[in-house]
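Blinded run. Sample ID left blank on purpose so nobody reads anything into the name before looking at the predicted structure. Input follows.
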Amino acid sequence: MKFERFAVVASRSPNAQKALEEITSRYKLYDPEDAEVIVALGGDGFMLETQHRFLSHGKPIYGMNRGTVGFLMNEFKADGLAERLELAHRSELHPLRMTAENNYGVVQEALAINEVSLLRQTRQAAKIRVKVDGIERVPELICDGVLVASPAGSTAYNLSAHGPIIPLGSNILALTPISAFRPRRWRGALLPNEAEVGFEIIEEQKRPVSAVADYTEVRDVASVTVAVDPSVTIHLLFDPEHNLEERILNEQFTP
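Blinded prediction complete.
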């Protein structure tokens, strides 16, 4: 697809700012509101921030790595940017919607592109009841926490918690415990994309738990539900030789 107007946003890191200066000197840039595509310069964290920032715009985002890992980014090159955008492959993602109710009955919603995680707030382990589509699956999970990850987020916190890497087109979610004490043999589950995961906090006053959707945190939660929101679509652009599906597949064979 040919893009005639693109905007560029950059993180505050020196590398990203230097790249921004280089691109600004070479191309005519537009404001994000008037552009057809957003180019993000930074690392994976900034890419996640950019996706949330422009979530309501529905515009494709093309990232170029000026950070550390750059899993969601393309290689940085100032030359031929317009041609790269035209040849880029599009990946579509649907975020997770978290609905969290705290101990005072206040309900808050947030979207997560990577994962929704529940984490203990104090020195004591959390006790969490886990339900899937209203059916109780784990009566009492004693743990540091538990998370639900999308395929795109399965290589992030989920992988660090020893969860599975999920191919992008698999329509599967990862339900992964974090440092589970009981039940000791439970290592999590793979769930269909349409599943609704419910968490109920046991002894919530004694063992407080926070819920985090990417970087939106709700503290002292009593219950949390997580489900894919198909009404929201995120469009990411990748160079043909290094698309997101290939990256996720390749991660499964990385030592």
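Unblinding after everyone has recorded impressions. The first strand starts at residue 6 and ends at 10.
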